[in-house]
Design brief:
7-stranded antiparallel beta sheet, about 210 residues, 5 helices, alpha+beta
Length: about 210
């Protein structure tokens, strides 16, 4: 793979407490970082957009192809002991975050696994926007792990009824690619339709 270093996934330590997750650094090869930074989509809307709604080009387009490819899915399948190849994928991209994002949740039951790949050059400790692995739905301060959303950091977790996560409020640029392995194509289509509708109303009401 030209952009992704699969060894970063292979060598990452998997945790099963409080739920199954994997944190890896340097997923993106160092010699392509400048190109990926340059080719990241120029998104003006806040929130996650599906790849169908974003103009992809250059190295970033190639990155999406590698992230959605079978090689990465195979490595993640081995790490989690679950065949992820059978599940369709939904890929979304965010550039701009709003303070209302980051509320504590588990992800919906239609998702099997979620992977986040962060693409920010740096991040201050007290800035908010750092995803936390949480123990319950109420408490941000009691957490197992805090994920720095810096360039090449990857966080993946299996969805469960206790896969609580969230982050403190942040407003501004927060570049991230999210790939969800979803139970059925119908779920993917439904999520895409819902996302387009949400973006439509954001365009009208500016929220």
């Amino acid at each position: 793979m030209q952009l992704i270093d699969l060894a970063a996934v292979r060598n990452a330590e998997r945790s099963s407490e409080p739920y199954d997750y994997l944190l890896a650094s340097n997923l993106l090869k160092a010699d392509v970082i400048d190109d990926l930074r340059r080719d990241f989509p120029d998104i003006n809307k806040p929130g996650y957009l599906t790849v169908d709604e974003v103009k992809l080009h250059g190295r970033f387009k190639q990155l999406i192809e590698e992230l959605e490819g079978p090689e990465l899915t195979e490595e993640l399948s081995r790490k989690f002991g679950l065949d992820l190849h059978q599940y369709p994928r939904l890929t979304t991209i965010m550039r701009k975050s709003q303070p209302k994002y980051g509320s504590i949740h588990t992800d919906g039951p239609s998702k099997v696994m979620t992977m986040l790949v962060y693409m920010n050059d740096e991040w201050q400790q007290d800035e908010g926007g750092r995803l936390r692995v949480l123990y319950d739905e109420k408490n941000y301060d009691k957490y197992k792990l805090e994920v720095p959303p810096t360039m090449g950091t990857m966080f993946a977790f299996l969805r469960s009824d206790n896969s609580w996560h969230g982050h403190l409020p942040f407003a501004g640029e927060r570049r991230v690619v999210q790939i969800a392995w979803v139970k059925s194509q119908a779920d993917v289509d439904r999520k895409k339709k819902h996302n387009k509708l949400a973006q439509f109303f954001k365009g009208i009401f500016g929220r």
